[in-house]
Design goal:
heterodimer, A: 244 residues, mainly alpha, MetI-like fold, 0% strand, elongated, B: 234 residues, alpha/beta, Rossmann fold, three-stranded antiparallel beta sheet, 7 helices, 9 strands
């Protein structure tokens, strides 16, 4: 946690130096002006927006992990299913976020569902492919041992498959926790009803440059904090299965 | 007494070439045999067929056992589980006696990557014995162990067999290992490999490396092995 904080402080220092030389607050306000604007903006409404965005990120994390790992297991165990779904997943992976916008606005309107849908789709294909790789990584020798001793059902999944998949599931959570925050904010910016991304969009429309920077600063800090929190949590949970 | 394992005219081929053919094997309940031959003569393939992990290319095999234990050549332990949970994974039976019998009680909570090679192999053996097998299949289970540990394991195995006489098939290319673990030795050789000799090894229960009977039989077996044409290497 110390190194990211030092990095952040370094970035703020660089930002201050750049703002000093640019000397045009409408393009690049300095850290002091930005923090002053943030102090004015910090109210219950901002807190509510932050909570709304974090809730969406949590929803994305749950959807991607559950659906991605579930679908990945099914596709990994069935080559036929994998062949059938692979083109669809590759297309979804290649599709830019903006392309989903029209569909999402028509389907869900402006609100929380659009950002959750867009951000989930952004990470679902890679979660599925990572899990497929994990399933294919099952050690045949261990599977044969389990067959020989009749290890089946819940015990087989808990003791053998989950342990084998753990490093891959960790990679999925790592990837999603690192990118979902950004993806949700962009999606909120485009089609959200509430949240930090919506607040940034409003500030931009009002030409409130210091406000955009202040909200972006909040987004960066919360993004780093969230990623650290998730990594810490999965490190603890993963210790049970991931061999050192 | 009904044999626990019967193979008739058993054969296995790989990529169109016969590895072994015409094997007739019969093992009585509680009998311990060894398959002795060079690498690649089909010993492990026979064990895999007996365990139901592979199918023969010809002939038939009948295993009249409700439980088959298999001590793999490489331990095949689940690396993210402790010793205790590796055993619990295959059976709900009480593990303490087996762990104590194989001197593993102190390592029960250890994760398997932290164990030495010899301890891993003992866990491998404990897992097979925990199922209280009617037939125990040992695939080169002692080949990677040092002599002291090997002798200790032989002794442990002998003690466990005395308490619960299971049939066993030990696959090895070391005549001395075969003599110290078995009552009968099937000498394998030729290409495709066949059972050349069925050698009784009526040695005392306390057989050991220095036992004159073991030394004499080993010398005889080595002479026979040197006469056998090399089997195909797998």
């Amino acid at each position: 946690m110390k190194r990211p904080l030092l990095g952040l402080l370094g970035a703020i220092a660089l930002w201050g130096i750049a703002a000093f030389f640019v000397d045009t607050p409408i393009i690049l306000p300095g850290p002091a002006e930005t923090l002053a604007r943030l102090a004015i903006m910090a109210d219950a409404a901002l807190f509510s927006s932050v909570v709304s965005s974090m809730g969406k990120v949590l929803a994305v994390l749950c959807i991607v992990v559950c659906l991605g790992v579930g679908l990945g297991m099914a596709l990994g165990l069935s080559p036929a299913l994998h062949e059938a779904f692979r083109p669809l997943l590759l297309a979804a992976q290649a599709m830019p976020v903006i392309s989903w916008l029209a569909l999402v606005v028509f389907a869900f309107g402006i609100g929380w569902r659009g950002p959750v849908f867009i951000a989930s789709l952004a990470f679902l294909p890679s979660a599925v492919f990572t899990t497929v790789a994990g399933v294919r990584h099952f050690e045949r020798d261990l599977v044969e041992m389990a067959d020989l001793y009749g290890v089946r059902g819940v015990r087989r999944w808990r003791d053998l498959y989950l342990g084998s998949l753990a490093p891959f599931m960790k990679a999925v959570v790592d990837t999603v926790s690192g990118g979902a925050w950004k993806a949700v904010l962009v999606a909120e910016y485009l089609c959200g009803g509430d949240g930090l991304g919506v607040r940034i969009a409003w500030a931009r429309q009002m030409a409130d440059v210091e406000g955009v920077y202040a909200l972006s600063l909040v987004a960066v800090l919360l993004g780093l904090l969230g990623e650290w929190g998730v990594r810490t949590a999965i490190r603890g949970a993963g210790r049970r299965w991931i061999p050192s | 007494m009904d044999p626990v394992l019967t193979a008739r005219n058993l054969g296995a081929s790989f990529e169109g070439e016969w590895v072994f053919r015409s094997w007739d094997v019969s093992i009585a309940r509680g009998e311990r045999i060894a398959l002795l031959g060079r690498s690649g003569c089909g010993k492990t393939t026979f064990l895999r067929i007996a365990a139901g992990l592979a199918v023969p290319s010809e002939g038939e095999i009948r295993v009249r056992a409700s439980r088959v234990g298999y001590v793999f050549q490489e331990p095949r332990l689940i690396p993210w589980l402790s010793v205790r949970r590796n055993l619990a994974c295959v059976s709900d039976r009480d593990r303490s006696a087996i762990l104590a019998g194989l001197h593993l009680s102190d390592a029960a909570a250890a994760r398997t990557p932290d164990l030495s090679g010899g301890m891993k192999q003992r866990v491998n053996l404990a897992r097979a014995l925990l199922t209280e097998p009617d037939v125990l299949l040992l695939d080169e289970a002692f080949s990677s162990l040092d002599v002291a540990l090997k002798l200790r394991l032989f002794s442990d195995l002998e003690g466990l067999w005395r308490r619960n006489p299971f049939a066993s098939v030990t696959v090895t290319h070391d005549p001395r290992d075969a003599l110290l673990t078995s009552d009968r030795i099937l000498l394998i050789g030729g290409a495709p490999a066949r059972i050349l000799r069925d050698i009784p090894a009526p040695l005392s229960a306390e057989r050991s490396y220095g036992d004159p009977g073991v030394v004499a039989l080993e010398a005889a077996i080595l002479r026979e092995l040197s006469d056998v044409s090399p089997a195909r290497q797998s």
